[in-house]
Amino acid sequence: MDRRATTIIPLALLAGVSLAVLLAGQSLAELDRAWWIEYLPLIVFLIAALMGGRMNHSRITFLALVGLFTFLAAGSGGTTEPVQRATALAAGLAVCVYTLLCAHWRERGLVTEPGVLRLLLVVGPMAVLWGLVATRPATLVVLLPRFFAAPLFGRLLPLPWPVLLGALAVGALLTARLPRHPLETPVLPVAMAAMLLGLGMTSPRFVGWGAGGDMAVRLAAGRVACSLFMGVAALVLLLASLEHSYGSAYLDELTGLPGRRALEQRLSALGSRFAVAMVDIDHFKRVNDRYGHAVGDQALRFIAGHLRDIKGGNAYRYGGEEFAVVLPRRGERDALGVMEDIRGRIAEGVFHLRANGRPAAAAEPPTGSPTEGIPLTVSVGIAAVARGELTPEEALDEADRALYRAKELGRNRTVRRSELKEDEPSLG
Length: 428
Prior knowledge:
Elements: H1 3-24, H2 35-54, H3 58-75, H4 81-104, H5 113-135, H6 137-143, H7 146-149, H8 161-177, H9 187-201, H10 215-250, H11 260-268, E1 274-281, H12 284-291, H13 293-307, E2 314-319, E3 322-328, H14 332-348, E4 351-352, E5 373-374, E6 378-385, H15 392-408, E7 414-416
Parallel strand pairs: 6-7
Antiparallel strand pairs: 1-3, 1-6, 2-3, 4-5
Helix pairs in contact: 1-9, 1-10, 2-3, 2-10, 3-4, 3-5, 3-10, 4-5, 4-6, 4-8, 4-9, 5-6, 8-9, 9-10, 12-13
């Protein structure tokens, strides 16, 4: 799944539902009896939790379970304002805390000892909270002082002020520190915000329900809005789970580029006019031998970063220090211009080693300074197909032959298939 889609879809879902709730107001109460209002968020939360567990992504499972219990608690909070505020305070703080934990926990699986302990840490308190709200709401009101349950912005956003401050703090931490991952920004912040907005919508004082009207109508509209926002949170987590499963199957973990399986699928969908290129890092073995494999990994990511910027095409990690590029509907001249631009930018740039880029227990220390810059170049082979005279697989072999020729000619250059002689061997 495209990274931009992973960023845009959660934000669009949250913005769309927010706008719909504000525009609909009390008319949302008409949907209160629809079965999906009550059950759909639960179903999607369960699917996200199960998929996260199946794909060994326990953090999705944990946060989906937090959302499930939060939705159950919000629906069991009764109609009195003290109970609603106490529920929003307890559940809202739990959402903030668990979001932060899930963001910074390292993946340890579900069926391991750490995984089971974390599962108990999530399910235990959330189940107790749901039980208190459903059976002893008065106890919850007594346990939580009214001062902490008071909303910060009154009718505008009727959430207790500690929840709002906690959400802002967690959001800032996620934005500043969260590493790139399928659960990266904005998936976690949007899921957290949607859950908290769902809790806030249960208040009959929300400005969107108007100052007048029947109390039962405002409460019904609040239940519907709560379900809609909780549904957004569930869908966002499901999206993160799908992104993780896609990445596990199709993305190269080291470079973040699509891998061989994704390349094979892309080749099978090409038309009769296209170009492919093979890219190989020059003297990559020397980099590994001198600086260590950890620095070699940095070099692979450096080259992948340049290839990711190709316009009108897609780059793939082919294996080792080799990459493949697919350029649909491109002729040889266009493909040459694209690949020469990339090759030139790589040659003109300098790859700077990161001082903290190597693991503490690396097998071989680098002999060069960890902050020095080293030049990297690539050799490129191009094969263009104009009228379906070659299959995509055959074109890839021809690009491989052209790459071999570029190596023979001294590296740091691009060779086209049209420049080859018939008897020149393949690199393999």
